[in-house]
């Protein structure tokens, strides 16, 4: 009987499969270039009701499976193209109907005079593996920076004091620009993002479940900043100018261009920004030394000027119908100028012993250039082969001058000293990568690839005591270190639709790392050789036309960076020092995540465990001298639970909004001065944006966020938030004018405290780093505005730039 039932079930399954039909084809433009992301709706011929929907992939391929036999109409749309509607298609059981060899879409001419502001456009779009932020159409961010947009995004935290970015409560974020990672130190990446104006940004992708083709580096995932493109025939582009005031003058200008003719495409962009600010920070610490209470209180009053310029230029050429090659070059220059007046007082038993006045100036100069060669070949409609070769060079110069004056409790000058510190850091990256993607059948795609990266990082820190005609080097605080690192990776990824309504993505990545940190006086300070497997999986299932469920798992790594490891001592003031930690180990994390999307409502729940989590700027106080040392430390384990709910609110066609509530529960197992310390904290975060589209192409927008705190290793951060607003007017061919105000109520203030009586620890930091700012922006497109598809082009260095710190 059991065998008979098995045979019957098998026959029913075969009959069901034979009764199904498959429809597939290719979408392309009139130049036979595949169109990615075209929307396809399959309608029943009888009543035009929706039978199924899908989108074309990067090769222009689409497929409908598990269809019932019958008559259908295929409707295809893509931005910038006319809608295509097929004649009635008769699908038979067990058949595969190729619509034509290719469906060609005709260009749609979109003139600037007809542009209107849509109140229904979603600023935030949620997908199973990422969140998309529409920057180009954000009104409140007009004239702002990339960091402004990132800091106010749901689930994202920017620690301005230590210069780090977290997603969903996890550190280890890799910043990319157009798919190319940024190799700068974490704190300097934040400065770079402050100098990158929003005028040239199209969107920002927050990728929390990256596929195997991405590097395993970065426990939290990737933030990819996508710059604007003008993919049209002839010459076209746009430019924008911004002027404003916060705690000083603010200015920015940006422009981009695109020239396409026949089989060549030349494109580029440039952006400049200038920012003045007056950051104000206070530090307090208290220790007990054999029953004597010692205190230190300091104030840092700074004035900063940050001119930044970045640009890129690229050239693509079609070598034939199947092969495209290109060269992309980019550069960056940032000069962070600082002038600060610092005061500090040292007390014992409640009485001031010594007062210190510190006058210092700094010029932190970063410059970069990089080059990429890319070639893409399609031997057939099912296969894409891509090769990338990259060279990336950075140079950092950071001289700082200090004039320290010491006074007794009566205010009498005791003595004065002058100190100069220098830092020269050249960084070189060489990257080569090859990727192959092939459709094995109508529902399965296989991707494989290999990548190798070679890093050379040198750091020369000098400490000099100055006198009259004297410049004496302090060898104890001067050092030279070199980091030599290479790592190779191999990956395989499978993307399939095993049954109707289900998508499965499985991947495995292997990375092998050789890392060596040495100095002229000590070889092999750190010498490590290790290989690891990094699996990832994502499954999504369409429960109905309105609801989709997905689940994912990924394992990732965050390697210690140069400044984390190098055992130098960096002078900040006479009683505060930064030092490296050669014993630091890499962090490994595993994340389980599940999502449910109902129409545009989105709920995401994740749980992450981190082993040897790296926490920056962990304080250690020498109770005898009351000196403070900051260094990166491993904490044995960090557990993070995160829940995020996104709610769209569309009242009317002209009034729309999007609101997000997230909850984070963190449990940190720490070690301080050799003893175990536990930190537990619940964190709530609220983000919202409301937009109204008025008559005559006027639009207004209000956005804001509130976060109830954070855990930063041994430090606990207090609540903070911001509210922004903007108004925009479009005049068609005459351009667009926008006025925005950020941090309206000056609530972007940051307060940290570390307190443990048993560990003889009390340390507070209060920082006012950001102030209310108002900006006025004018932007204008030029040239031919006929939209045409351009190659979606990546590079081989798509995941590295956060490795240098």
Verbal overview:
It is a single chain. With 805 residues, the chain is mainly beta. The strands form 5 sheets. It has a 31-stranded mixed β-sheet that branches. A 6-stranded mixed β-sheet has the order 10-11-16-17-14-15, with no helix packed on it. The protein starts with a helix and ends in a 22-residue tail after the last strand.
Provide the descriptors you would attach to this structure in a database record.
4% helix; disordered N terminus; 48 strands; disordered C terminus; 31-stranded mixed β-sheet; six-stranded mixed β-sheet; mainly beta; 805 residues; 65% strand
Strand fraction: over 45%
The computed structural class is mainly beta
User: Please, how many helices?
Assistant: 4
How many E-type strands? 48
Show unreliable segments.
1-19, 109-121, 787-792, 798-805
Kindly provide the radius of gyration, computed on alpha-carbon positions and rounded to a whole number of angstroms. Answer: 29 Å
Mean pLDDT: 82
Shape assignment: globular
| Helical percentage | under 10%
Euclidean distance between termini CA atoms: 68 Å
Biggest beta-sheet profile? 31 strands, mixed
SSE layout:
Blueprint: H1 2-18, E1 21-28, E2 39-44, E3 50-55, E4 61-67, E5 70-77, E6 84-85, E7 89-91, E8 96-98, E9 103-104, E10 124-127, E11 130-134, H2 146-151, E12 156-159, E13 164-167, E14 173-177, E15 180-181, H3 186-194, E16 201-207, E17 221-227, E18 234-245, E19 249-261, E20 264-277, E21 280-289, E22 292-318, E23 323-348, E24 351-380, E25 383-397, E26 400-408, E27 413-441, E28 444-467, E29 470-473, E30 479-496, E31 502-518, E32 526-542, E33 547-558, H4 562-565, E34 569-573, E35 576-579, E36 587-598, E37 601-622, E38 627-652, E39 655-672, E40 675-693, E41 698-707, E42 710-712, E43 715-717, E44 720-730, E45 736-742, E46 749-756, E47 761-768, E48 773-783
Parallel strand pairs: 1-8, 1-9, 14-17, 35-38
Antiparallel strand pairs: 1-4, 2-3, 2-5, 5-6, 5-7, 10-11, 11-16, 12-13, 14-15, 16-17, 18-19, 18-48, 19-20, 20-22, 21-22, 21-47, 22-23, 23-24, 24-25, 24-26, 25-27, 26-27, 27-28, 28-29, 28-30, 30-31, 31-32, 32-33, 33-36, 34-35, 36-37, 37-38, 38-39, 39-40, 40-41, 41-44, 42-43, 43-46, 44-45, 45-48, ...
């Amino acid at each position: 009987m059991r065998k008979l039932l098995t045979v019957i079930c098998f026959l029913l399954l075969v009959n069901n499969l034979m009764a199904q039909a498959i429809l597939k084809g290719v979408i392309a433009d009139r130049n036979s270039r595949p169109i990615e992301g075209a929307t396809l709706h399959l309608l029943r011929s009888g009543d035009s009701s929706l039978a199924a929907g899908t989108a074309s992939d990067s090769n222009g391929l689409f497929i409908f499976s598990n269809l019932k036999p019958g008559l259908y109409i295929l409707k295809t749309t893509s931005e910038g193209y006319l809608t295509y509607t097929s004649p009635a298609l008769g699908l038979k059981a067990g058949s595969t109907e190729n619509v034509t060899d290719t469906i060609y879409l005709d260009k749609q001419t979109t003139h600037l005079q007809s542009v209107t502001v849509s109140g229904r456009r979603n600023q935030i779009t949620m997908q199973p593996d990422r969140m998309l932020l529409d920057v180009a159409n954000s009104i409140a961010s007009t004239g702002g920076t990339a960091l402004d947009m990132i800091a106010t995004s749901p689930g994202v935290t920017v620690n301005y004091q230590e210069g780090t970015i977290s997603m969903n409560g996890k550190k280890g974020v890799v910043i990319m620009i157009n798919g190319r990672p940024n190799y700068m130190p974490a704190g300097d990446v934040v400065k770079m993002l402050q100098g990158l104006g929003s005028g040239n940004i199209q969107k920002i992708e927050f990728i929390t479940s990256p596929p195997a083709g991405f590097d395993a580096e970065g426990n939290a995932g990737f933030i990819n900043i996508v710059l604007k493109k003008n993919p049209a025939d002839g010459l076209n582009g746009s430019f924008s100018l911004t002027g404003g005031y916060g705690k000083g003058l603010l200015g920015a200008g940006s422009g981009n261009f695109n020239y396409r003719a026949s089989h060549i495409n030349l494109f580029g962009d440039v952006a400049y920004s200038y920012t003045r600010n007056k950051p104000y920070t206070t530090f307090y610490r208290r220790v007990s030394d054999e029953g004597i209470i010692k205190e230190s209180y300091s104030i840092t009053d700074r004035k900063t000027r940050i001119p930044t310029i970045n640009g890129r230029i690229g050239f693509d050429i079609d070598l034939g119908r199947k092969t495209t090659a290109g060269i992309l070059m980019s550069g960056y220059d940032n000069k962070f100028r600082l002038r600060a007046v610092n005061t500090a007082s040292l007390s014992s038993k409640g009485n001031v012993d010594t007062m210190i006045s510190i006058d210092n100036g700094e010029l932190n100069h970063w410059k970069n250039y990089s080059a990429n060669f890319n070639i893409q070949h399609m031997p057939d409609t099912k296969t894409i082969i891509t090769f990338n070769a990259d060279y990336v060079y950075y140079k950092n110069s950071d001289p700082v001058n200090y004039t320290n004056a010491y006074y007794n409790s009566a205010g009498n000058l005791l003595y004065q000293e002058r100190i100069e510190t220098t830092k020269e850091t050249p960084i070189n990256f060489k990257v080569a990568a090859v990727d192959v993607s092939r459709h094995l059948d109508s529902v399965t795609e296989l991707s494989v690839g290999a990548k190798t990266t070679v890093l050379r990082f040198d750091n020369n820190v000098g400490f000099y005591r100055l006198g009259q005609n004297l410049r004496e080097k302090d060898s104890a605080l001067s050092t030279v270190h070199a980091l030599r690192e290479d790592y190779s990776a191999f990956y395989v990824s499978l993307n399939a639709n095993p049954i109707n309504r289900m998508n499965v993505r499985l991947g495995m990545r292997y990375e092998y790392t050789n890392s060596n940190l040495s100095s002229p006086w000590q070889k092999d300070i750190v010498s490590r050789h290790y290989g690891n497997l990094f699996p990832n999986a994502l499954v999504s299932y369409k429960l109905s036309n309105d609801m989709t469920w997905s689940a994912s798992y990924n394992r990732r790594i965050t390697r210690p960076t140069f400044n984390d490891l190098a055992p130098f001592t960096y002078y900040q003031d006479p009683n505060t020092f930064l030092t490296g930690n050669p014993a630091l180990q890499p962090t490994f994390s595993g994340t389980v995540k599940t999502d449910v999307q109902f129409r545009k409502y989105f709920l995401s729940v994740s749980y992450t465990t981190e082993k040897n989590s790296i926490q920056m700027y962990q304080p250690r106080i020498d109770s005898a001298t009351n000196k403070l040392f900051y260094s990166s430390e491993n904490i044995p384990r960090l557990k993070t639970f995160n829940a995020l709910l996104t709610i769209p609110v569309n009242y009317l066609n002209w009034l729309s909004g999007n609101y997000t509530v997230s909850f984070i529960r963190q449990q940190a197992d720490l070690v301080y001065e050799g003893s175990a310390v536990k930190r537990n904290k619940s964190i709530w975060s609220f983000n919202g944006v409301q937009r109204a589209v008025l008559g005559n192409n006027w639009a207004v927008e209000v956005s804001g966020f509130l976060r109830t705190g954070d855990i930063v290793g041994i430090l606990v951060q207090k609540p903070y938030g911001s509210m922004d607003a903007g108004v925009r007017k479009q005049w068609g061919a005459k351009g667009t004018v926008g006025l925005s105000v950020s941090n309206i109520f000056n609530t972007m203030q940051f307060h940290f405290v570390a307190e443990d009586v048993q560990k003889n620890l009390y340390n507070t930091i209060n920082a006012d780093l950001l102030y209310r700012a108002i900006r006025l922006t004018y932007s204008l497109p030029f040239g031919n505005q006929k939209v045409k598809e351009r190659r979606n082009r990546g590079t081989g260095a798509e995941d590295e730039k956060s490795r240098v710190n």
